[in-house]
Amino acid sequence: MKKVIQVAVKEPQYVVSTDVAFAQVDAWFGHTVRDLKLDVIYPEHTEKRPCIVWICGGAWLQMSVSAHLAYLCDLAREGFVVASVQYRTSNEAVFPAQLEDVKAAIRYLKAHSERYGIDPERFGVMGESAGGHLTVMTALTGGHKEFDKGDYLEYSSAVQAACPWYLPADISKMPRLSDVEMMAAPESLMLGKNAALHEEEAMKACPISYVTKDAPPFLLLHGTNDHTVPYTQGEAMYEALTKAGADADLIAIEGADHADLHFFQREVWKIIADFFKEKLNVK
């Protein structure tokens, strides 16, 4: 069968660039260096678009830049440039290295905004679990220059909207374990010491410690049946933000456990897309 069709050109071509090196960090006990990488999804030859930075979870122990690209591509088609960024895990470096890495990625993307068609004044950040923690830390520390390390320091790492999923907001209120078990807890490995015995230092790695009225808009997602990061952690973050006078919404997903399939349904991603469209001014 031969068939001739007419196709109206309404959408741009989307491109995925993978393994883009955005920073170099110490490796092998400080004797060598290695690249940190990001994947970026962007449309070619369009007006500048806001950028959403995605941060993968994994208890600060493991992470994957590419694991969620299928969903991030759908988000890109909603009008965003989307970048998934790598950060050092806790077996490589302790906090605040992870936060420094995310901020380095944001500065890199702003410095190369012309290349990727990004509006550097419209950045959002989103992540799950440990990535949710880093999402909030990034959003709340835009003016904390002590966390900006590396290159492109002439650019700000501040963002204009944040969507954390099931984040640990207050390490001091995570379920308590025995001293031996606590040493192996993800939050202790991230901190480099027992979080229960070094609460003052632990609180410096807690998003809830950085809340002010100047926080960017937040959309928090948390399952009510979360057995890993209790739902009360999402509630605590929401209450701290609203008490400070910040713009925040909490979406409680009834019956959802940690990182389960509820969060990967189109209904949830539409809520996310609508939030970023509103806050980052996508027409």
TrEMBL record:
Keywords: Hydrolase. GO terms for molecular function: carboxylesterase activity. Pfam families: BD-FAE (PF20434). The gene is nlhH_1. Its EC number is 3.1.1.1. Transmembrane segments: none annotated. Residues 38-241 form the BD-FAE-like domain. This is Carboxylesterase NlhH.
